[in-house]
Amino acid sequence: MGASGIAPSFAAIYGSKWIRKKHALALFGFFVIIGAVLLGRNVAFTLGGSLLEKKFLSFDAVLIILTSATISLFLANILKIPQSTSQVTVGAIVGAGLYFKQLYVRTLLLKIIPAWIILPSLSAFLTFFLYSRIYPPRHGNLHLYQLVFANEKKIRRASLAASCYVAFAIGTNNVANAAGPLFGAGILGINAGLWLIAPLFGIGAGLIGKGPLETAGKEIVPLGGISGVLVSFVTATLLIIASSLGIPQSLVQLNLASIFAISCLKNGHKCTLDYHITRKTF
Asked: 194, 44 in Cβ contact below 8 A?
């Protein structure tokens, strides 16, 4: 899961060539832990009992759920495709719920799936709207280029802060994808689960996260400093909102929707939709 999460958090600044891979991996792991410990409980409660009743989350069931999610993410990482940890985990829990015929359908259909549709769409819209205010350069926004955009140090610091903000957001949401089922099965307490799983995100990112980082940061669209900050701010804010509501949300989708919006402004809609990475991702 950490291997998949590194792409949406540090792809922007890495695509701008302002940070080395090893530094991105270290910062990612640190801020994921902080986010998980501070704000990771709500999503863990959802995955630990709001989709499938706790009595069906036995040790064997949780083992199958996490193994299924891990295999899906491992294949996506090998194929260098950014994939959602939340969606594969929810999908695995739904599969178990269908087997036991005890799935809480209302939570899935009225809370989780609508968020998966609305939030990525909102991510693309907000990014397109905000970035269109500053790109391309014109008479109305030249003062921004003079005051902010011409100062590379300020842009670099903002990019680093935004990337760490995204890693923090991942901790608030995606760590629960593994900790939640363990909590539901009574294997680990909620706090112990978050503390145990969060560091493994950094390890996973270091071992097999370089492929998704390359794909999101360089192949879809070369992000500049300002566009990278905007992508990070929009997607992380939406993810933290989802976390506060207890919704397991795909940051990968939020991030890619935002990046595709940037590409549409820079390269046009048709070129973006026809690009081979777009077809590969969807």
From this structure: yes
Q: How many domains is the chain partitioned into structurally?
A: 1
- Give strand pairing partners of 52: 103
User: Helix crossing, 251-267 with 85-100: angle to 10°?
Assistant: 130
User: Helix 190-208 vs helix 59-78: angle between axes, to the nearest 10 degrees?
Assistant: 20
Question: In this predicted model, what pLDDT tens digit does every residue of 132-176 receive, in sequence order?
Answer: 887 766 666 666 666 666 677 778 888 899 989 999 999 999 899
Q: Which of 26, 258, 272, 270 is nearest to 125 (CA)?
A: 258
| Cα-based distances in Å from 146 to 91, 136, 157, 281 | 48, 14, 17, 37
Residues 233-250 as b or e (16 or more Cβ within 10 Å = b): bbbbbbbbbbbeebbbbb
Answer yes or no: is pLDDT of 109 > 90.
yes
Rg (CA), the chain: 19
Mean predicted confidence (pLDDT) in 224-246: 89
Convert 149-183 to b/e letters by CB count within 10 Å (16 or more is b): beeeeebbebbbebbbbbbbbbbbbbbbbbbbbbb
Contact, 8 vs 166, CB < 8 A?
yes
CB 29 within 8 A of CB 234: no
Alpha-carbon distance values, 278 to 208, 233, 264, 267, 273 (Å): 22, 22, 12, 13, 6
Please, which residues bridge with residue 103 across strands? 52
What is the span of the domain harbouring residue 51?
Answer: 2-281
Residue with tokens 């599969």: 95
Based on the number of CB atoms within 10 Å of its own CB, is 59 exposed (0-12), middle (13-18) or buried (19 or more)?
A: exposed
Give percent of the chain above pLDDT 70.
81
Alpha-carbon distance of 181 to 21, in angstroms, equals: 31
